[in-house]
């Protein structure tokens, strides 16, 4: 029985330890031996953006990420620019088309800035692809080796919702800065590390297809259902979405999946599907061990967060629900940070406005204290708070 309890290279590089990861992202021990599709963790979030050269600066200067690798015309890649950025154990790859015929430009025309690939690190690419194929997955790239002077990476890719893919990457025999074809690049100066790890990536899928995609992750990728879900009881009244969560065995990789629900108002998921032009990744939750500092720094650099009405904090039910948290509630209120609690502990969270021009992809910052949830309690609390504000204005 192999109980997995090791750090990924990225986590080691980020000087994280297992205790921190249990706290940050709810890492759990599990038996990888009986997993048909073992996943070590996140490899990278790959974006197609309208201007990767500028976006790379944005993520360095505003989000405090570090540039570590680059590929582009100067390195023999005539199709696109690609900038690899890191914050803690999180890796973003920003790609923008150079050649007018680049498929990245077509992707961007259809979807706007968005996530093309949620790449996962796996110990055995071939075993994963064999299993996925037997379970009916679309194999977009067969397992193959890519080699340069730093070693060999074995990769493959399978399709998931919309135009999104999961690359499967085994980099255990590779020592380069990212992948063959990339060269090391150093970063401009700036304050670093506003977040340490990726907690979850939310997918918005088509109306009525959430359970199908939950089935995809459990059947094809061996993920398990996490307890939290938002059903049509809350959904139709408040949040206009239904949501279930699947997770890899060790819980490093967690995918909440949303579908729109018929509600009082037009669903935010409907809006996403319209403007993204179909299903896609909706938000990335970035785990931080000091959400107050991260929010203060991001706000000072111009990042806009969703506003939380004061009535969310003055509601006596909220105080009863959340109990004691590590800072006075006024500190959270001053920043618009939300709190949720379950039987395991609590979490602090806040959401940014969309990062691109379309009302599609955005970020969440999350600071976990024992809770393995995703903020379900905030759906209802937030919507009720908004309705109380509406009522004050005589519009409810
Ligand atoms: Fe989230």
TrEMBL record:
Keyword Iron carried by entry? yes
Q: Does the keyword Metal-binding apply?
A: yes
What EC number(s) does its UniProt record assign?
1.13.11.27
Q: What GO annotations for molecular function exist for this entry?
A: 4-hydroxyphenylpyruvate dioxygenase activity
Enzyme class, first EC level, given as a word: oxidoreductase
Q: Which residues form the VOC domain?
A: 41-171, 197-353
Write out the entry's keywords from A to Z.
Answer: Dioxygenase, Iron, Metal-binding, Oxidoreductase, Repeat
Q: What cofactors does the UniProt entry give for this protein? A: Fe cation
Q: Per the database entry, which stretches of residues form a coiled coil?
A: none
Q: Which NCBIfam families match?
A: 4HPPD
What family is reported? Belongs to the 4HPPD family.
* UniProt protein name: 4-hydroxyphenylpyruvate dioxygenase
Please tell me the species this chain comes from: Pseudonocardia aurantiaca
């Amino acid at each position: 029985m192999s109980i997995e309890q090791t750090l990924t290279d990225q986590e080691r590089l980020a000087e994280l330890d297992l205790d921190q990861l249990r706290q940050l992202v709810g890492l759990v021990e599990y038996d990888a031996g009986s997993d048909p599709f073992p996943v070590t963790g996140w490899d990278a979030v790959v974006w197609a953006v309208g201007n990767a050269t500028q976006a790379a600066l944005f993520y360095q200067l505003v989000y405090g990420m570090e540039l570590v690798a680059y590929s582009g015309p100067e390195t023999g890649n005539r199709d696109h620019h690609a900038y690899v950025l890191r914050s803690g154990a999180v890796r973003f790859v920003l790609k923008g088309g150079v050649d007018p015929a680049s498929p990245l430009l077509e992707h961007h025309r259809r979807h706007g800035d968005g996530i093309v690939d949620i790449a996962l690190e796996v110990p055995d690419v071939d075993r994963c692809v064999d299993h996925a194929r037997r379970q009916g997955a679309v194999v977009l790239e067969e397992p193959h080796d890519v080699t340069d002077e730093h070693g060999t990476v074995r990769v493959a890719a399978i399709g998931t919702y919309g135009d999104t893919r999961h690359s499967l990457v085994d980099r255990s025999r590779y020592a380069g800065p990212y992948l063959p074809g990339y060269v090391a690049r150093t970063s401009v100066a700036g304050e670093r590390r506003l977040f340490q790890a990726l907690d979850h990536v939310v997918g918005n899928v088509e109306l009525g297809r959430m359970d199908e995609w939950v089935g995809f992750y459990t059947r094809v990728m061996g993920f398990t259902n996490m307890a939290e879900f938002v059903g049509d009881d809350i959904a139709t009244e408040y949040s206009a979405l239904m949501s279930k969560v699947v997770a890899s065995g060790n819980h490093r990789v967690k995918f909440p999946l949303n579908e729109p629900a018929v509600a009082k108002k037009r669903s935010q998921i409907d809006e996403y599907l319209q403007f993204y032009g179909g299903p896609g990744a909706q938000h990335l939750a970035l785990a931080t061990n000091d959400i107050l500092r991260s929010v203060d720094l991001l706000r000072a650099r111009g990042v806009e967060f969703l506003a939380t009405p004061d009535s969310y904090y003055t509601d006596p039910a909220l105080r009863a629900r959340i109990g004691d948290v590590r800072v006075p509630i006024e500190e959270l209120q001053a920043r618009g940070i939300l709190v949720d609690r379950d039987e395991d502990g609590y979490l602090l969270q806040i959401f940014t406005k969309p990062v691109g021009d379309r009302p599609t992809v955005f970020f969440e910052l999350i600071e976990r204290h024992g809770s393995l949830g995703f903020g379900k309690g905030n759906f209802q609390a937030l919507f009720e708070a908004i309705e109380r504000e509406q009522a004050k204005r005589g519009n409810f």
